[in-house]
Design a protein that fits this description.
- The structure is a single chain.
- The chain has a single domain, classed as Rossmann fold.
- The strands form 2 sheets. It has a 5-stranded parallel beta sheet with strand order 2-3-1-4-7, sandwiched between helices.
- The chain has 10 helices and 7 strands.
- The radius of gyration is 16 Å and the shape is globular.
- The protein has 208 residues and is an alpha/beta fold.
- Helices cover 50% and strands 14% of the residues.
- α1 crosses α10, α2 packs across α3 and α6 crosses α8.
- The protein binds adenosine-5'-diphosphate (2 copies).
- The site of one adenosine-5'-diphosphate has 20 residues, from α1, β6 and α10.
Amino acid sequence: MRMILFGPPGAGKGTQAARLLERFKVAHLSTGDMLRAAVKAQSALGTAAEGYMKRGELVPDQLVCDLVVERLAQDDCRLGFMLDGFPRTVPQAHALGATLDKAGIALDLVLVLEVPDDLIVERITGRRTDPVTGAIYHLRFNPPPAEVADRIVQRADDTEEACRTRLAKYHGETTPVLPYFEAKGIVRKVDGVGPPDEVTARVLAAIG
Ligand code: ADP
Ligand code: ADP
């Protein structure tokens, strides 16, 4: 399976990806996770990306595309991959298309998780993650168990202000990517509102 998990920030892409990876043995390519790892390692990429991320702006296409193209060439992507948070701009979609064409690979599916903006702010500001396991929690919707409650952290960009910027970028720069994939007939839209288990059931039905 070669798919893209698409949707606004906080739609539940990471949450659903973790569940899908229990069933499908494919590589998980989250550009957000990769960029955060680069920031933590203080690599040249991390240093260049950090300011954009903190403000909720998009990291320049060239940096993100190089990262993804390099990652897609690794062995574990041969049997399939789940792109999460990429592509986020039309140039990124074209760069991905060119890379896959060159490798003779076709995408199976672009799965769009639809969640209205007013719910997004609540999901983002309540998001917490476990730095040890990477598990994603929410203070209200999915509270962490007592044994990890002391170590959960909030992302630097999960403030209301950065969230509004990210939503504006999503509507302005990311949704224009969809017609490119719609022309290939591979877009499936799924309602991302409701308990995570229900969303997972809808996602699995859409994957077929
Ligand atoms: P994304 O990867 O799209 O940014 P996440 O999976 O990190 O989104 O989810 C954002 C926040 O919303 C997290 O705190 C997560 O626990 C919570 N969340 C995810 N799915 C749901 C859902 N179906 N209902 C309620 N909260 C959810
Ligand atoms: P969320 O799903 O909550 O928006 P991500 O973890 O996917 O968060 O991304 C966090 C930040 O990393 C984005 O706000 C952006 O600054 C940067 N980023 C991630 N993926 C991309 C991408 N494909 N293009 C540009 N910037 C990206």
